[in-house]
Amino acid sequence: MTTVSSLTPALHLDHPPDLQVNGMTKRFGSLVALENLSMRLKPGSFHALLGENGAGKSTLVKCVMGFYQPTAGEVLIDGHSAQISNPRDAHRYGIGMVYQHFTSVPAMTVAENLVLSRFGGGGVINWKAELEELQAFMSSSPFQVPLETPIAQLAAGQKQKLEILKQIYLHSRILILDEPTSVLTPAEADEVLGLLRQQVSAGELSVLMISHKFREVTAFADEITVLRKGKFAGSGQVSQLTVADMAEMMMGEQKTPTPVQKNSQPNAVPVLEVRQLSAQKDNGTAAVSGLDLTVYSGEIVGIAGISGNGQRELVEVLAGQRVASAGEVWVNGEQYNATRAEMYRHQVFSLPEEPLRNACVGHMSVAENMALRTFDRPPQAKGILLILQAIRQTAVGLISQFSVKTPSPETPVQNLSGGNVQRAVLARELSAEQIKLLIAANPCFGLDFAAVDFIHTQILNARNRGVAVLLVSEDLDELLKLSDRLIVISGGQFTYQSPTATAEYTAIGHAMAGH
């Protein structure tokens, strides 16, 4: 048996090892999350791991990384049983992972996080030498993240790029990617995956990628393994499979996205009006300046743009999380400051990105999170007293209506899968009797095919009921599918506007790139 201590550190490996998972099972009490799963990641190959939420993909890679210890089965590295008890052990075998949720320390800079990501090392850091090395590393990278910027000031796409950069910096030879392009534009995704594909083709890297984007799988992957309900559901060479083949393996039956059907809105009225709005980044520099925007009832306006061009700050102003430095916001003909009372009066609701951070209290139950907007009003409250039974009854109805998979209404929301957390937020935000304005920011971040289709359908249903929808997304395909009107933001300003039906793809790309 090969032991961890006898292995060469990952930093010195000159080729990717052969990784095999043999008969792996993982149980959590009575729940079988993974059952007798075997697969192989060949050296110098790009392998996609497919399956819907709850299929066992994350459980599998967490067992490989040492976060979980399998109930049965083993990991083999170059044919030898590997003892992986934690991510440090995985690193010694040359295995690194880019997680779906960001792992960088928000208060530290990019440079500090890169140095922190190294395993081992002395207690004294020679920052002059470190910065010279990091600058040389960054200058040779295909995309740039400013070294002196605190993580908290980075947009979601920049944070995801940094997560990938960490593993390139650490010279990991097996790279596990968990939805790596969820917050990237199609061009950014092609750039990042293209770089990794080049390293794979050169024999320098093996990649195991969890993804739900068939376009990326067909463009970059060599092989796929499909999981369904914790079990092996199929595998094959990408060159010999169609998207329909892969989707059928994933879901057990052929499915196509729900057709987009939009009702005409003959009596549309302005709901959201943004007038000469400006806002600053956390560091005091301009994030957006002089924005004018109107969203009408029964209309979806899509905001497209490369991460870091002011989308986050715009959404935070509209959600009451950031104070505008200039300009005004009007809703339903009245000036609007996004207070809780104004949100209730004007019936403004939101679907934020990273819902566990921005829309939920992780340790609170599903029922309690579903009541965050209504807990202080009848029938869930009587004076200052909360009516817990009414809160639970409401949650039971919403869980059923929005197909939230949870053991019970009392389960902490942080225990749910990403798709079900977003369904719970969706249930809370779209269950009100009257909704005038919905603000959705990357609502499908990291979600699977079925969850994305469900959320798209709910947003379209709201639009067809006359709700005004502002959809901010870094997924251009999503915007082209859902939006009635498309606006591109670049450098904190709107640089392109068009009805989606007549929008020019080339012009959108140029505007997003700042040309």
Write a structural description:
It is a single chain. With 515 residues, this protein is of the alpha/beta class. It has 3 domains: 4-105 and 172-251, P-loop containing nucleotide triphosphate hydrolases (Rossmann fold); 271-347 and 468-515, Rossmann fold (3-Layer(aba) Sandwich), CATH 3.40.50.300; 348-433, P-loop containing nucleotide triphosphate hydrolases (Rossmann fold, 3-Layer(aba) Sandwich), CATH 3.40.50.300. It contains 17 helices and 22 strands. It has helices at 57-65, 87-92, 110-116, 127-139, 156-169, 186-201, 214-220, 243-251, 311-318, 340-346, 355-358, 366-370, 388-401, 418-430, 449-464, 476-482, 505-512; strands at residues 19-28, 31-41, 46-50, 72-77, 80-81, 95-98, 174-178, 206-210, 223-228, 231-237, 270-280, 286-296, 300-304, 326-331, 334-335, 348-351, 381-382, 385-386, 437-441, 468-472, 485-490, 493-499. It has a 6-stranded mixed β-sheet with strand order 6-7-8-3-9-10, with helices on both faces. Strands 16-19-20-13-21-22 form a 6-stranded mixed β-sheet, with helices on both faces. A hairpin with a 2-residue loop joins strand 14 (326-331) and strand 15 (334-335). It is globular. Mean pLDDT is 86; it is low at 1-9.
Q: Which superfamily, in CATH terms, is the homologous superfamily of the largest domain?
A: P-loop containing nucleotide triphosphate hydrolases
The count of β-strands is 22
**What is the level 1 CATH name of the largest domain?**
Alpha Beta
CATH T-level topology of the largest domain = Rossmann fold
Please tell me what the overall shape is. globular
Could you tell me the strand content as a percent range? 15-25%
Discrete helix count: 17
> What's the CATH architecture of the largest domain?
3-Layer(aba) Sandwich
| Overall mean pLDDT | 86
- The largest sheet has its strands arranged as 6-7-8-3-9-10
Level of helix content? 25-40%
Oligomer: single chain
Which structural class is indicated by helix and strand composition? alpha/beta
How many structural units, i.e. domains?
A: 3
